[in-house]
Structure prediction request, 87 residues.
Amino acid sequence: MQHFRKIETEQSLRDARWNAARRLDDCTAYMANEAQRMGALGFAYLRRPEHSVRGPSWLRGATSSVAAHYRYAREIMGITDRDQLYA
Prediction:
C-alpha cells in the first residue's frame, strides 16, 4: 500500500484544527488565529503590483478592512494597546 505524504491542504489543516477544538478557549484561539491569518493575507494582497493603479479611496477602504481583522483578533485575545509595544 502506498502512503502519500504532505497532501494536506491549508483548508484541511484548518478544518482539523477546528474539529480538534473542545472548549470555548480552543474556539477563541482558533478564531484569533484565523483573523490574524486573514489580516496577513490582506496586507499581502494590498502589496500586489496591480493595485498600485487604484485610487486612494480604494486603498483606504481596503486597508481599513484588513486592519479590522487584526482589531478583531486582538479583541478576541483580550490584547489592549498597553499590552503591546507597537500598537
About this structure: The radius of gyration is 17 Å. Residues 24-46 form the longest helix (23 residues). The chain has a mean pLDDT of 77.
